[in-house]
Amino acid sequence: KQRSLMNRLKIAADSLKHVLPNQPPDAAEFPLFFKTVEGFFASFEIDKDLQAKLLLPKLSTRSKAMLARMPPDDADVYEKVKKFLLTEYKLSPREYRTKFLTATRAASETCQLFASRLACLFEYYAQSRDVDNYKQLCQLLVADRLKECLPTGALQYVLSLEGDTWFEPSKIASLERKGGQFTKSVYRDCVARNTILFFMHN
Predict the structure, then answer these.
(1) Are 175 and 161 in contact (CB under 8 A)?
(2) Nearest residue to 41 via CA among 21, 24, 61, 60
(3) What is the DSSP-derived secondary structure letter of residue 167?
(4) What is the pLDDT of residue 140?
(5) Residue 39 contacts residue 16 (beta carbons within 8 Å)
């Protein structure tokens, strides 16, 4: 059985030798990396019990060290390895969005590959926001655009309340007025304190 496994692994490794990419240094590229790897696994009909073993040589030194913390049985399962690494390198939703909005096409990158990379970044941004239907996606896009149009004070107020979540446009609109009042209140308090300090030292 062990010989059979080694034989199958060697055959699979030889067939993928020149096509599997190395893990990219930028964590934002990991989703596309895994999507590409899975595409080759499907094209070459790679058995599931071989996938994690074939992935390992393509990982960075840091990722290999991380996998040493996994239970041995889990480290042999591709999906568990993928989930573990994506969790370890997890980007915040705002980072995924920024990566999507600021992505540029590399000189050696075809238009099709760039499109795939953009789609993958946006997909993971939507997933990080727990969006799973068209209505939520529309709400998210409108909410993001709405926040870009808020005054600085109101935006900071909304973001401080959102934390790692996101608010629908209607809630952002209701908070915008409170944010403006909050900013004015803080400003008045600062002016009052500075005035008192001025007279205390003069």
Answers:
(1) yes
(2) 21
(3) -
(4) 97
(5) no
Assess whether pLDDT exceeds 80 at residue 177: no
* Average confidence score pLDDT of the chain: 87
Q: For residues 137 and 70, give the distance between their C-alpha atoms in angstroms, rounded to a whole number.
A: 35
State CA 96 to chain mean position distance: 4
- Give the residue from 87, 88, 79, 91 showing the smallest Cα distance to 29: 91
Distance (Å, whole) CA 180 – CA 151: 8
Q: Is the pLDDT of residue 202 over 50?
A: no
Residues with Cβ within 8 Å of 161's Cβ and at least 6 positions away in sequence, in order, are 167, 175
For residue 62, how far is the Cα from the chain centroid? 18
> Which residues, other chains included, contact 88 with Cβ-Cβ below 8 Å and sequence gap of 6+?
63, 66
What is the DSSP code string of 60-126?
A: -HHHHHHHTTS-HHHHT-HHHHHHHHHHHTPPPHHHHHHHHHH----TT--HHHHHHHHHHHHHHHH
Cβ count within 10 A of residue 61: 8
In angstroms, the first-to-last Cα distance of the chain is 89
Name, in order, each residue with C-beta under 8 angstroms of 73's C-beta and a sequence gap of 6 or more.
Answer: none
Whether residue 5 is predicted with pLDDT greater than 90 in this model: the reply is: no
